[in-house]
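Progress note, sequence design subtask.
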């Protein structure tokens, strides 16, 4: 019996071991963890994953050469790069406060290979010196978002926009559109406006400034004036603003070369100056006073014939508009155009300053007709080119939805917003 018990026990142990052995042989499916690849980050036309990215800002006193030298580029190479790209990018003009990006190799050398200079929020310049040396100007993709605004003037246009939290640039652009039909220095309380404009966004989220005004309505002294942007020059791709009856709102010449300024001294051939013993000192220009740095605008389309500094004129620009008219703009802090450059009405050609003979910041605006300096405010100046009859059907179709949208905008007085 005792042997039988041992035999039974051995049998149970044997069967149990076999079962355990069988169970351990059951194979489970192999679990392989998927290695996630980092998302591809593209900017400036490069895959940033392939580089060590250094972002920084130009500091006062920095130069293009010093920046590259600090990142291991020899002086001789910097000179070669600067000379090669000078027609595209003047390295001497990089400014403190501007952002830049360096793309460096990921190996142990961390060699700088690409320099990107951020001209603004949108525009940038790429200097690629990996193999050959190449420079190109480009811009970030921009999305345009249509926006509307309206209001009632209580003081002036810029103050109204400021109180409403709207961009002053929109007010500036509106003043330019109505430069010949509304005197924005004499707005009245109760004047009203409605405007449809676009705002620029980078990556759909980063504000990048104001685009264009598509349409606007301004009621000045109870007189309503519509303005619609329309491409009237299909060859050159330029646009003008027209009212709802297709009348061009732009004259051949603007009233003034500076927005939101005041006339501090008029054209006067019999002007007497106390400082010179009340002797007659003719003033052959019209002075517009404004803070230093205020943009000075071309009052009409034309070709820049002079951009220099000379004697009492200080820094100045002169523009030839046609065989009859020339204009000149004196005492600039700096010019923004070069001789031979074509400018359009409203383009910035310089900035208010105090160079030459002047006691305060202003621009002396001089006006020539047939080679003789005259008072622009006493001239019967021509109107701008009217809209051609052939474009009228396209114009009417274009403005119809914009006018409907303007008319449906509810005016928002300031007191409702504050």
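Output:
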């Amino acid at each position: 019996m005792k042997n039988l018990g041992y035999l039974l026990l051995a049998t149970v142990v044997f069967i149990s071991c076999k079962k355990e052995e069988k169970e351990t042989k059951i194979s489970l499916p192999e679990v392989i963890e998927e290695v996630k690849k980092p998302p591809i980050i593209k900017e400036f036309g490069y895959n940033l994953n392939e580089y060590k990215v250094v972002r920084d800002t130009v500091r006062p006193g920095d130069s293009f050469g010093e920046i590259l030298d600090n990142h291991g580029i020899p002086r001789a190479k910097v000179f070669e790069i600067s000379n090669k790209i000078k027609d595209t990018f003047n390295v001497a003009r990089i400014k403190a406060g501007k952002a830049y990006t360096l793309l460096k190799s990921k190996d142990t050398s961390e060699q700088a290979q690409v320099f990107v200079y951020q001209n603004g929020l949108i525009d940038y310049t790429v200097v690629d010196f990996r193999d050959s040396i190449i420079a190109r100007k480009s811009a970030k993709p921009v999305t345009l978002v249509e926006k509307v605004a309206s209001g009632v003037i209580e003081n002036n246009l810029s103050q109204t926009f400021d109180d409403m939290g709207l961009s002053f640039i929109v007010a500036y652009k509106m003043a330019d559109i109505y430069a010949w039909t509304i005197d924005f220095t004499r707005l009245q309380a109760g004047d009203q406006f409605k405007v449809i404009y676009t705002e620029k966004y980078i990556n759909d989220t980063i504000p990048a400034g104001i685009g264009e005004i598509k349409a606007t309505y301004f009621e000045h002294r109870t007189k309503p004036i519509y303005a619609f942007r329309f491409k009237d020059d299909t060859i050159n791709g330029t646009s003008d603003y027209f009212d709802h009856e297709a009348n061009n709102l732009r004259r051949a010449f603007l009233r003034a070369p500076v927005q939101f300024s005041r006339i501090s001294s008029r054209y006067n051939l019999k002007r007497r100056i106390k400082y010179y013993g009340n002797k007659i000192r003719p003033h052959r220009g019209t002075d517009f006073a404004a803070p230093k740095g205020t943009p000075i605008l071309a009052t009409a389309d034309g070709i820049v014939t002079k951009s220099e500094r000379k004697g009492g004129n200080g820094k100045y620009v002169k523009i030839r508009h046609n065989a009859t008219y020339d204009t000149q703009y004196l005492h600039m802090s700096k010019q923004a155009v070069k001789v031979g450059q074509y400018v359009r009405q409203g383009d910035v050609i310089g900035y208010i300053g105090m160079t030459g003979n002047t006691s305060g910041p202003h621009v002396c605006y001089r006006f020539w007709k047939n080679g003789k300096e005259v008072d622009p405010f006493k001239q019967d100046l021509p109107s701008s080119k009217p809209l051609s009859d052939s474009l009228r059907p396209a114009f009417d179709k274009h403005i119809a939805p914009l006018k409907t949208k303007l008319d449906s905008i509810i005016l928002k007085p300031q007191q409702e917003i504050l």
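Helices lie at 2-24, 64-70, 75-84, 157-163, 168-177, 392-408, 414-417. Work on this subtask will continue into the next period as scheduled.
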